[in-house]
Design brief:
Layout lengths: L7 H10 L8 H12 L1 H12 L8 H17 L3 E6 L7 E7 L7 E7 L14 E3 L2 E3 L3 H21 L6 E7 L9 H14 L2 E4 L4 E3 L2 E4 L6 E10 L2 E2 L11 H16 L6 E10 L2 E3 L6 E3 L5 E2 L2 E9 L3 H16 L5 E11 L6 H17 L5 E2 L18 E3 L6 E2 L7 E3 L1 H17 L6
Parallel strand pairs: 3-6, 3-7, 7-19, 9-18
Antiparallel strand pairs: 1-2, 2-6, 4-5, 5-21, 8-9, 10-16, 10-17, 11-15, 12-16, 13-14, 20-21
Helix pairs in contact: 1-2, 2-5, 2-10, 3-5, 5-10, 7-8
Length: 436
């Protein structure tokens, strides 16, 4: 049964009218009905939090969204905690915990409060047109937060929340993690070490118009390259006394990166470059200043870029190649390479594949199409990657839509209900499974 395009109420009606609904337990059928009944409430809650600017660097706005959400979790029997992150230059995180049977699986649900849209952005407000709504961060990730709440409310209505071990982690700086990173992510990592399963509630991925499952995401790391050379009159370029200059050394390195580093699931980009006498990165590393003349050999060149990989082993292998290329200097030049690991990869594992298989059994019970694994090269980094070394994970559990990080970002509202139904049943089943 293909029901992806149906509105929320029609989804529930189609599901429960289908013979396949007999595969759902009585509590699971109650959960489906509860999601449907709460749809307009969920859309109203989404509107309220979307209208509050919570750009990562708007600390008051991030905290305001957290304050709006805390009562909702408390009503569900969760203990809420605001974790101040001023030491890392960020607002903080909202964690909600509900502990039950110590012998059953522990579940971590991950989303984020912040958006890329700071108060200076002209993109504001909330506009609904039927089954679509537009607003800053409405998909990434305020819609994901609403999916979490909708699923938990459905579980409460069905009685499947009782005895469950759940931590909800809503970070306040997913779009621009605080520094030092160890401080900014220590609470999330601790929760990942506690958990048996992690679910990430950023947006739903699709393949050929069908919902897909995200069992892997790539890393996101930064690198800085600086090349140096003695300066002098351009007439001496390439000579033994003057060497090749900083720009040619920079070009040599970047061209060898292009020719020698490509491999499956890895990408590397040069986002900024400058060269001259001198050239210098700005303190925020988002711009550079330089000057020079055509008849002067450039003394310094700088470049900044990123690296994205699928596994820690791939990351280590490519960085080792980069360092070897950087060290093979042209005459009269030197080079420095600094690598900053930020978001680790979420590698595809058997445990992640098993989670998707469990979700697909739920899809079959709901009469929904099977979700195929989404290509990891098409998903960016996310907070679930920080807990990937410790726990089985499934990402892309948030709603569907498009235009993330740009004016006009939108959400397909019925997907809130579809994802909440899937989540309520999946978490309810996981919460009854014994710990390994």
């Amino acid at each position: 049964m293909r029901i992806a395009g149906l509105a929320a109420g029609a989804i529930a009606a189609a599901l429960l009218a289908s013979p396949l609904s007999a595969q759902l337990s009585a509590p699971e059928q109650v959960a489906v009905q509860a999601v449907d009944a709460g749809f307009e409430r969920d859309v109203n809650a989404l509107e309220q939090i979307t209208r509050v600017n919570s750009g990562t660097h708007n600390h008051e706005g991030v905290k305001a969204v957290a304050d709006m959400l805390m009562p909702a979790f408390e009503e569900l029997g969760f203990t809420v905690q605001w974790i101040d992150q001023s030491a890392a230059g960020r607002a903080g995180h909202l964690f909600a915990r509900r502990l039950g049977d110590p012998d059953t699986k522990r579940i971590l649900m991950i989303g984020h409060l912040d958006t890329v849209f700071e108060p200076s952005s002209p993109f504001t407000g909330f506009m609904r047109d039927g089954d679509r709504a537009v607003g800053p961060g409405i998909l990434d990730d305020k819609g994901g937060v609403i999916v979490i709440l909708s699923a938990l409310r459905a579980m409460q209505a069905a009685g499947t929340l009782d005895g469950a071990n759940i931590v909800v982690a809503l970070t306040g700086d997913e779009e621009d993690a605080g520094d030092p990173l160890e401080e900014a992510r220590c609470d999330l990592i601790e929760a990942g070490q506690w958990a048996d399963v992690a679910l990430g509630f950023e947006g739903l991925s699709t393949l050929d118009g069908n919902d897909a499952g995200v069992i892997a995401r790539r890393s996101s790391s930064n690198w800085t390259l600086t090349t140096r050379s003695a300066s002098g009159h351009s007439s001496g370029i390439f000579s033994g006394s003057s060497g090749y200059g900083a720009v040619y050394e920079m070009v040599r390195i970047l061209d060898r990166f292009r020719a020698e580093l490509p491999e499956e699931n890895a990408t590397f980009n040069v986002g900024l470059i400058a060269g001259g006498t001198p050239a210098e990165l700005a303190e925020d590393e988002l711009s550079a200043t330089t000057e020079g003349k055509t008849n002067i050999i450039p003394s310094v060149a700088v470049a900044r870029g990123d690296l994205r990989t699928l596994t820690p082993e791939q990351d280590e292998r490519i960085v080792a190649k980069m360092r070897a290329i950087v060290a093979d200097n042209l005459p009269g030049t030197s080079a420095e390479f600094d690598f900053e690991s930020r978001y680790p990869p979420m590698a595809p594992t058997d445990g992640n594949r098993d989670l998707l298989a469990q979700l697909n059994r739920i899809n079959a019970d709901l009469g929904l199409d099977e979700q195929q694994p989404y290509p990891p090269s098409r998903r960016g980094a996310a907070d679930i990657s920080f807990v990937a070394p410790y726990v089985d994970g499934l990402a892309g559990m948030g709603p569907g839509g498009g235009g993330s990080h740009a004016e006009g970002e939108y959400i397909d509202l019925p997907t809130i209900a579809r994802q909440a139904m899937r989540t309520a049943i999946l978490v309810g089943r996981l919460a009854r499974q014994p710990r390994d």
